[in-house]
Structure prediction request, 266 residues.
Amino acid sequence: MATTELYTKGACVWVPDPEAVWVSAQLLQNYRPGDQHILIQLTDGREMEYPVLPPAGLPPLGNPDILEGGNDLTALTFLHEPAVLHNLRVRFLDYSSIYTYCGIVLVALNPYEQLPIYGEEVIDAYSGQDMADMEPHIFSVAEEAYRTMIREEKNQSIIISGESGSGKTVSAKFTMRYFAVVGGAAQQTSVEEKVLASNPIMEAIGNAKTTRNDNSSRFGKYIEIGFGCKGDIIGANMRTYLLEKSRVVFQVLARSYITPCITASH
Prediction:
């Protein structure tokens, strides 16, 4: 937590907003321990007194402008919710970048459109490179796992998680495509489609409608890819396990017949 000595006149802070979630503001006076309010000025020019009584306390401090849009969240001076959201927003809107590192974790924003950043020329650019030397990308994470597997001859795991509609399945497809190409099996680049299409019956039964995805999988997937001694893909399989059984409870009735789609309860 930031020390109260940093809350001086001119300091940038983040205050809650009912529409924008967080908005930036500037302190118009120094904070003194015991003050119940601080005078701030919002970016639109409005001045207001912000209460600093518990449990909310003092608002989160803003990061220096020089750190804005950084490709690694751990490099931020202040790492809290508004700082993370703002940095991701800047990278997405100003830099057209959907990927950001948070240490060894890759944060991805789903642009809900096709982007020209997954071609073989991009794969070639990331092949053999360290994560620190390249801009954040799903291929960089895949390269790190692939190279560690080859060098240490040990199994590696990549965990892809996120809410419904966040792009987990697509990320898994691009990861497998990377492995196929760098393993010298460009003709097998459709391996990701074959693996993910291995059990369509289970998907038809277990998928559910959510507020963000009309066909959201209710299954967790464990995809296992086998590599030969030369690093080429020699096999793959996928195991599924049903998640959130409490949300898959009934079938929608429409036009006097039961549809094959299972919906989520509310």
Remarks:
- The beta strands are 12-17, 21-27, 37-42, 47-51, 99-102, 105-108, 219-227, 233-242, 248-254, 257-264.
